[in-house]
Amino acid sequence: MIATGRLSDDDLKRLYRRAACHTLFARELQGKIEGFGLVLVEAGAQGCPSIATAVGGIPEVMGSTGVLVPPEDVNAMARAIATYVANAELRERDGALAKSRARTFDWATCAGATFPELKWG
After folding, report:
1. In Å, how far are 21, 24, 78, 89 from 36, measured between CA atoms?
2. Dihedrals φ, ψ of 5, to 5°?
3. pLDDT tens, residue by residue, 53-109
4. Residues 6 or more apart in contact with residue 28 via CB below 8 angstroms
5. Which of 17, 51, 56, 112 could bond to 80 as cystine, CB 3.0-4.6 Å?
6. Rounded CA gap, 111 and 26, in Å?
7. What does the longest C-alpha to C-alpha distance in the chain come to?
8. 67 has which bridge partners?
C-alpha cells in the first residue's frame, strides 16, 4: 500500500500500471453511498484490476473485472489483495478485462448512449 498524496495524471497512470491491484473500500455512511466510483474506471483504463466493496454503483461499474467484497469486511479485502499479489496470471486477466470495460465509459460512448434518451421540449 502506498499513500502518495496528490499526483500528476502521468504519475497516477504509471502507478496504476505497476500496481498489483487497486482498492476502493467504500461504505454507506448515514445514507450516503459511492454512486459511481470513477477511480475504478481510471485504474481499469491502465489495466489495473480493482478490489472494491459492493455498495452503491460500484458493482455496476466493475462488472466482473475484479473482486467485490462485502462492505466492512476487511478480511475479505485483505484476502483478495493477497490473491492478486500472489497470482500474476489472475492479475493480468482481470486487468485486461478492466481495461476493456473502462473503454465502455469513455465520453463518446456515454454521450452516444445518453443523448438519444434525452427528451426535448
Report:
1. 19, 11, 23, 28
2. 80, -165
3. 999 999 999 999 999 999 999 999 999 999 999 999 999 999 999 999 999 998 888
4. 55, 56, 71
5. 51
6. 27
7. 56
8. 51
Can you read off the three cell numbers belonging to residue 51? 478490489
The residue ranges of every structural domain in the chain are: 9-111
Q: How many CB atoms lie within 10 A of CB 42?
A: 18
C-alpha cell at 39: 477511480
- The closest alpha carbon to 58, from 24, 84, 107, 92, belongs to 24
Q: What is the pLDDT of residue 107?
A: 83
C-alpha cell at 2: 502506498
Axis crossing angle, helix 38-45 with helix 9-18, rounded to the nearest 10: 70
C-alpha cell at 62: 466493475
CATH class name, domain 9-111: alpha beta
SS3 103: helix
pLDDT tens, position by position, 24-63: 999 888 888 878 889 999 999 999 999 999 999 999 999 9
Whole-number Å distance between alpha carbons of 91 and 118: 39
Q: What is the DSSP letter of 28?
A: -
